[in-house]
Every structure is written in C-alpha cells, then in structure tokens.
Amino acid sequence: MTEVLESKTKAMAEKELEEIRVRKRTLEAVLQQCQRALELLKVVDDPANPGGAMEEEEEEDGEEEGSSHFTDSETAE
Predict the structure, then answer these.
(1) Angle between helical axes of 2-45 and 53-68 (0-180°, round to 10)
(2) How far apart are the C-alpha atoms of 66 and 68, rounded to whole Å?
C-alpha cells in the first residue's frame, strides 16, 4: 500500500515539475518578446532620432562605408 502511494506521489510530483518547466519556458519567451518590443519603442521614441530605426541603420551603414574609403596613409595626413 505504501509503495503504491509513494509511486503516485512521485508521478504527481514529476508531472507538476514538468508543468512548471513548461510555464517557465513560456514566461521566458514572453519576456524576450517584451524586451524586444521595448527596444524597438526606445528607438522609435528617441527624440534625438526623429527618423526612427531606419535612419539609425542608414547612419551605421554610412559610417562603415565612410571609414573604408581611407587608407592608413590618407588618415595619417
């Protein structure tokens, strides 16, 4: 009788633990989505960047291209 009770209790504990793992994974996924959304909102709402994310990406591309046009001898002058 005690063995049956122990096995049922163990099975219930394992099932509950698996449910907790699933909830944790779900909450972590939701948290990541919220963090991404907040980052996007920060970029869009940035008063120093009225063009939003597109303008920021274009500037980054421009900086990379601009820096590659100079050789070491040209930058030394």
Answers:
(1) 70
(2) 5
List all residues 6 or more positions away from 40 whose beta carbon is below 8 Å from its beta carbon.
53
- Give domain limits for the chain: 2-76
Write b or e for each residue in 47-74: b if 16 or more Cβ atoms lie within 10 A of its Cβ, otherwise e. Answer: eeeeeeeeeeeeeeeeeeeeeeeeeeee
pTM of the predicted model, to two decimals? 0.48
Tens of pLDDT, residue by residue over 11-41, are 999 999 999 999 999 999 999 999 999 999 9
Question: Is the sign of the CA dihedral 58, 59, 60, 63 positive or negative?
Answer: positive
- Alpha carbon 76 to chain centroid, angstroms: 40
